[in-house]
Task: structure prediction
Amino acid sequence: MAKISTIGILTSGGDAPGMNAAIRAVTRAAIFNGWKVKGIYRGYEGLINNEIKDFTSESVSNTIQRGGTVLKTARSDEFMTVEGRQKAYDNMKANNIDALIVIGGNGSLAGAQVFAQEHDVPCIGLPGTIDNDLYGTDSTIGYDTALNTIVECVDKIRDTATSHDRIFFVEVMGRDAGFLAQNSAIAAGAEAAIIPEDQTDVDQLGQFISRGFRKSKNSSIVIVSESKKDGGAMYYANRVRNEYPQYDVRVTILGHLQRGGKPSAVDRILASRLGVAAIEALNEGQRNVMIGISNDRIVYVPFSKAIKIDKPIDKELINVLNVLSI
Ligand code: F6P
Result:
């Protein structure tokens, strides 16, 4: 196995609060280990375009508390091509980078997997996405912060919903995963969550209206997971307007504010632990795995599992919301 003396680090895909804490942890752990670190800007795009800088311990000072990613990020179409990955590999070699640490979500780790196979490059992934949709880790970096942001927003919406006796459909991110919707609904005391994992032929909306919006409850909050399939919160709001015209309905789409802000302590600690573990994993000879956390223990999850296996939502969470929203 080739000796590692320099690692490259990049963030890719949608940014997530805590990515900076992860960059800091990886950088400092690598330097602690006697390795050199190169920061690669704008994800795989930066690797293709040679946007690479030497990183020192000071490069990551004063960043643990900042949202976003100091390395910037991108979704690279060129890296999806064989030619793009060849350019990326050539730049890696030109910069003497022996191994790559990729912080990102599903698409980013899928990119790392293909790259590692094609060019025999040691790659380690860190789960960085607010969606929490990577299999094999209990939580992804950014998820806890985004969840807290959503809950803070929904608490505010609740004030105005109550004052006006309105139903609010609040749309949250998550791409194809309902973790943000389900758990923010529980934490904010919402009346229902509409998530992709729980869609049945049963009319969820009718169920909610007949059950949740009872006489003593004049306002309601429904958290809706964004979904390409059915159009998200707007779709449900329009249906209620048509089918139950007696209700005063509003929609709030929280959008990208869910991705910003200072990372929570939970995300900073998670990112720090995963970052240190990534360097230990490389040192132990691990290749092409995502570092995750399961039952508070560091785990190595092969890329093939992390990105291919669907991470299920615990049915218990669905039950908790159902029971508590009577
Ligand atoms: O994967 C993170 C995420 O925020 C998803 O929840 C959302 O669907 C998507 O990224 C939005 O992507 P973009 O910032 O490119 O619009």
Observations:
- The chain has a mean pLDDT of 93.
- Residues 105 and 129 are 5 Å apart (CA to CA).
- Residues 14, 105, 129-131, 173-175, 226, 259 surround 6-O-phosphono-beta-D-fructofuranose (CB under 6 Å).
- The domain at 6-142+263-308 is CATH 3.40.50.450 (Rossmann fold).
